């Protein structure tokens, strides 16, 4: 057995109410003025986990070299993939955006999610 341990993440506040750090306006905004906030729970060279929030607006997004698991805990909106598939955003929804995914977020009510992103690129 290896001596590697599982990192323990201990919330000092519930993810729904945790104070986040404002990152600022979403750079690829298509409509509105979405503002992102985050709290990183764990980070290493292979990926990161945390809590992310974004105010209403519309923007494009893509996964390049990584995959993301998203568990939405607040808010409302949709994510439309490049092939036209529409996914609802609401509390309890879990989505995976695989490496190479592209789509558009349309947030109607401030969204908050717990996420894990891991590197999938072999370069």
From TrEMBL:
<feature type="domain" description="(S)-ureidoglycine aminohydrolase cupin">
    <location>
        <begin position="48"/>
        <end position="115"/>
    </location>
</feature>
<dbReference type="Pfam" id="PF05899">
    <property type="entry name" value="Cupin_3"/>
</dbReference>
<dbReference type="InterPro" id="IPR011051">
    <property type="entry name" value="RmlC_Cupin_sf"/>
</dbReference>
<dbReference type="InterPro" id="IPR008579">
    <property type="entry name" value="UGlyAH_Cupin_dom"/>
</dbReference>
<protein>
    <recommendedName>
        <fullName>(S)-ureidoglycine aminohydrolase cupin domain-containing protein</fullName>
    </recommendedName>
</protein>
<dbReference type="InterPro" id="IPR014710">
    <property type="entry name" value="RmlC-like_jellyroll"/>
</dbReference>
């Amino acid at each position: 057995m290896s001596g590697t341990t599982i990192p323990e993440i201990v919330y000092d506040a519930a993810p729904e109410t945790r104070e986040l750090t404002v990152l600022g306006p979403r750079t690829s905004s298509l409509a509105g003025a979405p503002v992102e906030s985050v709290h990183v729970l764990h980070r290493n060279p292979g990926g990161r986990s945390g809590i992310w929030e974004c105010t209403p607006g519309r923007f494009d997004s893509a996964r390049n070299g990584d995959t993301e698991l998203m568990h939405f805990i607040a808010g409302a909106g949709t994510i439309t993939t490049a092939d036209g598939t529409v996914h609802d955003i609401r509390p309890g929804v879990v989505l995976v955006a695989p490496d190479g995914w592209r789509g558009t977020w349309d947030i109607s009510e401030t969204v908050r999610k717990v996420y894990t992103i891991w590197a999938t690129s072999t370069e």
